[in-house]
Amino acid sequence: MSTTLPLAPTETPTNYLNADYGWKSWLFATDHKRIALLYLFSITAFFFVGGAFAVAMRINLLTPDGIFTHDTYNKLFTMHGIIMVFFFLVPSIPATLGNFLVPMMIGARDLAFPRINLLSWYIYIVGGILTLTAVFQGGVDTGWTFYAPFSSSYSNTHVILAAMGVFVSGFSSILTGLNFIVTIHTMRAPGMTWNRLPLFIWGHYATSLIQVLGTPVIAITMVLLGLERVLHAGIFDPTVGGDPILFQHLFWFYSHPAVYIMILPGMAVISEIVTCFSRKAIFGYNFVAYSSIAIAVFSFIVWGHHLFVSGQSMYASMVFSFFSFLVAIPSAVKVFNWTATMYKGSVSYDTPMLYAFGFMGLFTMGGLTGLFLATMAIDVHVTDTYFVIAHFHYVMVGGMVMAYMGGIHFWFPKISGRLYPEGWAKFAALLVFAGFNLTFFPQFILGYQGMPRRYAHYPPEFQVLNVMSTAGASILAVGYLIPMIYLAWAWRYGPKSPQNPWKAKGLEWEQSPTPPPTFNFEHQPVVTEPAYNYSGEEQEVKLG
Amino acid sequence: MTHQAVPVKVYAAVFGALLVLTATTVAVSKLELGEYNFIVAMTIAVIKGTLVVMFFMDVRRASSMTKLFIGAGFFWLAILLVFLLSDYLSRGWLLNIHWL
Amino acid sequence: MADSEAILAPQEPGLRHHFDDSAQQLESSTLGMWVFLVTEVMFFGGMFGAYTVYRNMYPEAFASTSHFMNVTIGAINTGVLIFSSFTMVLAVRSAQLGQKKALIAFLVLTLILGCVFLSLKYVEYHEKWVDHHIPGPGFQYADSRYAHQAQILFYLYFAMTGMHAIHMIVGAGLLITLIVMAARNRFTSKWYTPVEMIGLYWHFVDIVWIFLFPLLYLIGHTK
């Protein structure tokens, strides 16, 4: 990592960052790269709000009797869930890295609908404001799952505001997905056939399919919930003949595919990182590409595994359990292929690759514990315990957030034109890994031993593991804070980056300046080689 | 539409067919056909919808990608309805198993 | 920014800078609108699902409430919407042929028919209000055996037809926008994409009604 003198001001080339100045040029930007940065800042802000709620929860759980009342604690975990799921995880990679990179990776000048892209950010902000208003008005206590009839008939908190926030943010997600689908179909550069597309694109395409097909159902569910709170007609109220399980069906029809919205982009990033830092084309490109589509399709027929103990019919549960096992297969395919990519590759341990290693191990653990939960006989014992919490935090935080951090570091030079300090970055990555495991591994044990989730107070025998978990959380928090600091520092003061510091393959690295100009390329790219053509280059080096 | 303009009489014929089908479905609904009332009504609705999609929305001449997306939309709706109803319709099934 | 402009295509009328040519732009717009309509299918689909569940759960209550559905208004409204789809497709055809006056005439006709639909809907809703069949504190149902279940079914009736009506109102607003644009000569036979796209939206709203009508008004009617 060399330090080069910054260019004299008169020599600075025009790029998307300095093409125009002033707040209007950012708030009315239609350049997908600027919109990606607008999202990056807002998503980071929401991450910290959601994280603050988590900190409060973990502090409460240091002692069996806690420091908050049950009602307050209910609000803490609800707001933590709503903000982390809808305002951080769902948009995270697609709205930041996806928005930035999808056009560049396919050789296009922008997304198909740049103004709709900007609109989707404004819609996201409106949804966020609605939800934060619910927070400041005293919070919501239904859990992020809004289960009826508590949410529809009995809760005295600002359910409608929060439901509206979720409803609105859903449209942001739909518009982003729509934009990606159309862009990938119609705006690929000459020679960029479907099977030369980077796997990042395949992953985002599959994610967009889920966003477009699933999100409308949670939108209508929130409408029905809000309307029911006003009218009290009884649609989910068992005392008058309504069925609360109907709410669960409609809610999870989206929310299960939503978890794949949250993980597929992470897998897409890992595919890019693993191949680059193994200097080797991804093993089994077709399998990895189609596994993304398979995950997207299968994700829609497993939602009933959230309803095993709800009163759902045994037969429907068996079908959902069976498909839940099947949906693990394409995910496993990816893990095997990444491993095979590294085998006999030339692996280097830069920060993005460290996060990728973390992802591969932790996602695998999270995914395997998902299989336990898909097994009805086990699920009846561990459902609604910390086992479930540990499972989804392994895939979401150990998986997705690590992929997000890896992706941010990998493309940071491209986005900012600067290099981040590698030493600090590696240190933070290791802290995150250590902190994460200390936080969440004890929770598997807690759940297995029977500690229920969403409880403010617990029996004293669970305290030791809870203390370990809180200790881990504090390390994890530091691990997340450090990159915020050095990335902000590096943005302004970091050494200038060469065009392709990682010597990665891909149109965004090879054919676009760093940072890119507003229209991404100086000349229309034409694609002539398959994706990840690393071995072509290595051969030249050996011979020459 | 990047194709030739469709003659007005084609649209008029489709319009006429849609009105006839509407009258038919109202008339049939007044007959007592038991469960078949639902099937007939839905069949007619599907035919009407198909006419609108194929002719008014010009899907007859659209690309296969468009047709694929439309098919996918209805397929996904079917997934929602089938799996949702499979729970409700099978809830009573396990009542008489003696060997458990 | 002379260097980055080098990559832009030569300008055709209506062509936005990030597209290579009009064909690509039209393909994108069309695919985009269809993807949006797929989201609408799923959006309404959730309500169709809920409705089907309760219809199956409470067949007697359902039969009871179906006597209060105004089939006459429903049938007339179906005819009105089908007619409006006809005028809409003629509007698109006029745009394709560059016939500005016909385009505006058909758009206005479509808008009027849409307003007729909404007015008849209002009449229907008023009827329901008079009967105390609007869910909420004022709800009353004559047959006390089914009062609770009837309220759930009416709730779904209002949710589904209300959501449909909202989509009609949005459609009416879009039609007004098109009429204004057409009057200002924004459309030529080479570029009339908004007319086409809003036409697709209008037809979709018609199709939703084509399914709502028999489901809510016609079935269970004879029992």
Question: Top keywords for this entry?
Answer:
heterotrimer, B: 100 residues, mainly alpha, 70% helix, C: 223 residues, Four Helix Bundle (Hemerythrin (Met), subunit A), 7 helices
Write the layout of secondary structure elements.
The complex is a heterotrimer of chains A (544), B (100) and C (223).
Chain A: H1 23-27, H2 32-60, H3 70-89, H4 92-106, H5 114-136, H6 150-154, H7 159-186, H8 199-231, H9 244-277, H10 285-298, H11 314-342, H12 351-374, H13 376-382, H14 386-416, H15 422-449, H16 463-493, H17 507-510, H18 534-543
Chain B: H1 8-29, H2 36-56, H3 64-90
Chain C: H1 2-5, H2 22-57, H3 59-66, H4 71-96, H5 100-130, H6 147-183, H7 193-218
Which CATH architecture of chain A is right?
Answer: Up-down Bundle
| CATH class category name of chain A | Mainly Alpha
The CA-CA distance between the termini of chain B, in Å, is 62 Å
The average pLDDT value of chain B, as a whole number, equals 89
Q: β content of chain A, as a range?
A: under 5%
Which bin fits the share of residues in helices of chain B?
Answer: over 70%
Average pLDDT figure of chain A: 94
Largest sheet of chain B: none
CATH superfamily of chain A: Cytochrome c oxidase-like, subunit I domain
Number of domains of chain B: 1
Q: Which two chains form the greatest contact, residue counts included?
A: B-C, 48 and 51 residues
Taking the alpha carbons of the first and last residues of chain A, their distance comes to 26 Å
Query: What is the SS-derived class of chain B?
Result: mainly alpha
What shape does the CA trace of chain A take? globular
The H/E string of chain B reads HHH
Question: Which parts of chain A are unreliable, with pLDDT below 50 for 5 consecutive residues or more?
Answer: 539-544
Total E-strand runs of chain B? 0
How many extended strands of chain A? 0
Main sheet attributes: strand count, strand direction, barrel closure of chain A? none
Number of helices of chain A: 18
Overall body shape of chain B: flat
